[in-house]
Fold:
Amino acid sequence: MLIKNPEFKISAVSPKQYPDDGLPQIVLVGKSNVGKSSFINTMVNRKKLARTSSEPGKTRQINFYNMDNKFYFVDLPGYGYSKMSKQEQVKVGKFIEEYLNKSKNIALIIFLIDIRHSPTENDRLMYNYVINSNKPCIIIANKADKIAVTKVDAQVKALQNELNPLKDFTFFPYSSERRIYSDNIWTEIKAYIDI
Structure:
């Protein structure tokens, strides 16, 4: 999909700040430093639309990015950053929970995990939360450039067997460096936003 004019809309900290234009929202969840911002930038072919940080756990708000007035990418705060205080972790958790419970326009959740590692305890907690939300979800095994191309498919299957043995979620490899996996993900996204 070609996005011609992606733009940052707002950083929200409460439901009253969420965009109320009725556009579908594609929500990104994942641990800090899993590459949500880089995913957005690569998918829309922009280097600096979503702010990436060398310091994981820096995002404390919910960032909305308008895609040609067709839908939003919504970047939720990352979880599980060890240097974040307990108080900050609770605050971030409330942001995530409140948004997932109160937003009326969630069309799809994209759950990013690191292809190189087994899901963390926090990943499993988020996975269970997503299941209980009954919202559509796909899972992105990110950072596929960090392993050999020949091992990508096997690693994605291994992660699915570990996290989602029922195989009721679709798993995709992804790499912001290689830029070779985005077409399949766009096809999946389009099925949920009806464009």
Summary: The helical segments are 36-43, 86-102, 121-133, 152-163, 182-193. The chain has a mean pLDDT of 90.
